[in-house]
Specification:
Domain DUF6827: 112-272
Order of helices and strands: HHHHHHHHHH
Pfam family, one: DUF6827
GO molecular function, one term: transferase activity
Keywords: Coiled coil, Transferase
Number of strands: 0
Strand content: under 5%
Radius of gyration: 45 Å
InterPro entries: DUF6827
Helix content: over 70%
Largest sheet: none
Shape: rod-shaped
Structural class: mainly alpha
Number of domains: 2
Distance between the termini: 118 Å
Length: 272
C-alpha cells in the first residue's frame, strides 16, 4: 500500500506539482520514495533513528522538486525557513520603500528643472520685449533684471551638467552682456547730442545756452567712429540679438548723424 502511495506521489497530481526533476534523477526519486514508504516490517523505518533518516531523505527529495507551500504541508520546513522568509519580505519592503523614495526625489528634481527652465525663458523674453532705446525704461528695470539673473544662477548650480539648462543660461548671459555694452554706448551718444543742443539754447534761439564746448567737433567725430565700429562688432558677435542692437545702438547712431555727418554700415536701415 505504501509503495502504491509512493507511485501515486510520483505519478499523480502531486507528481504534476513536482514537475521535472531538479535534483536527483527519477530513478533515485523512486528508490527514495519506495524506501521511505516500505512496509512497517522493513528495518529501514522501524527504529526512531532510521525513521528520522528516512524523513530527512524524503524531505530532501521534496525540497528539490516541490514548491514552498507543499513543503509546509508535509512539514519539511523549519522555523528557520520561516524566519528567512520574513527577512526576505522585510528586505523586499525596504527595497520597495527605497525605490519609491528615489522616484519621489527624481520627480522633485524634474519639477525644479522645469521651473528653472521656465524662469530662464521668462526673463529672456522680458528683456527682449523691453524697449532698449528708452534709457529711462532701462534705468528703472535693470536692477530688477540683475537680481532675477542672480537668483537664477544660484538655482542653476545643481544642474551644471544639464546641457539644456547650460544652453539657456549661456544665451541669457550673452543677452545681458549685449544689453550692458549697447546701453553704455547709447548713453554716451545721448550725452554728446545733448551737449551740441545746449550750446544753441532753447529751440536754437540762444536763450539759456550753455558755455560752448571746445573741440566738440573732433570729440564727436571720434565718438561716432568708435560707436560705428562697435556697432559692426556687436552685430557679428551677437547675430541672434541683432534686432536689439539696431534698436539701441543703431538708432543712437542714426540720431547722432542728424547733427554730425558721418557714415556707418547699415545706415540705410534708418531713414532719419
Amino acid at each position: 500500500m505504501l509503495r502504491s502511495a509512493a507511485s501515486r506521489l510520483s505519478g499523480g497530481p502531486l507528481g504534476a506539482l513536482m514537475g521535472p526533476p531538479k535534483g536527483p534523477s527519477s530513478l533515485q526519486q523512486q528508490l527514495l520514495l519506495s524506501r521511505c514508504f516500505s512496509s512497517s516490517s522493513s528495518s529501514s523505518c522501524s527504529s526512531s533513528s532510521s525513521s528520522s533518516s528516512c524523513s530527512k531523505s524524503f524531505c530532501d527529495l521534496l525540497r528539490s522538486t516541490l514548491p514552498y507551500p507543499v513543503l509546509m504541508h508535509f512539514g519539511c520546513t523549519s522555523s528557520i525557513s520561516s524566519l528567512q522568509q520574513q527577512q526576505q519580505q522585510q528586505q523586499q519592503q525596504q527595497q520597495t520603500q527605497q525605490e519609491e523614495l528615489e522616484r519621489e526625489q527624481q520627480q522633485e528634481v524634474q519639477q525644479q528643472r522645469q521651473q528653472l527652465l521656465q524662469q530662464l525663458q521668462q526673463l529672456e523674453d522680458t528683456v527682449l520685449a523691453a524697449n532698449w532705446g528708452d534709457s529711462i525704461n532701462l534705468m528703472l528695470n535693470s536692477a530688477i533684471w540683475d537680481e532675477a539673473l542672480e537668483e537664477i544662477e544660484k538655482k542653476s548650480i545643481p544642474f551644471q551638467g544639464d546641457k539644456e539648462v547650460e544652453k539657456r543660461l549661456h544665451s541669457l548671459r550673452r543677452l545681458f552682456d549685449l544689453l550692458r555694452v549697447a546701453e553704455d554706448m547709447r548713453d554716451h551718444l545721448n550725452e554728446i547730442m545733448e551737449t551740441q543742443s545746449r550750446k544753441s539754447g532753447i529751440g536754437g534761439t540762444g536763450l539759456g545756452a550753455s558755455a560752448p564746448t571746445l573741440n566738440l567737433e573732433a570729440a564727436t567725430a571720434a565718438a561716432a567712429a568708435a560707436a560705428a565700429a562697435a556697432y559692426d562688432v556687436l552685430l557679428q558677435h551677437y547675430p541672434d540679438f541683432s534686432a536689439k542692437t539696431e534698436e539701441c545702438l543703431g538708432a543712437g547712431l542714426a540720431l547722432l548723424r542728424q547733427k554730425y555727418k558721418f557714415h556707418f554700415n547699415h545706415e540705410h536701415k534708418f531713414f532719419f
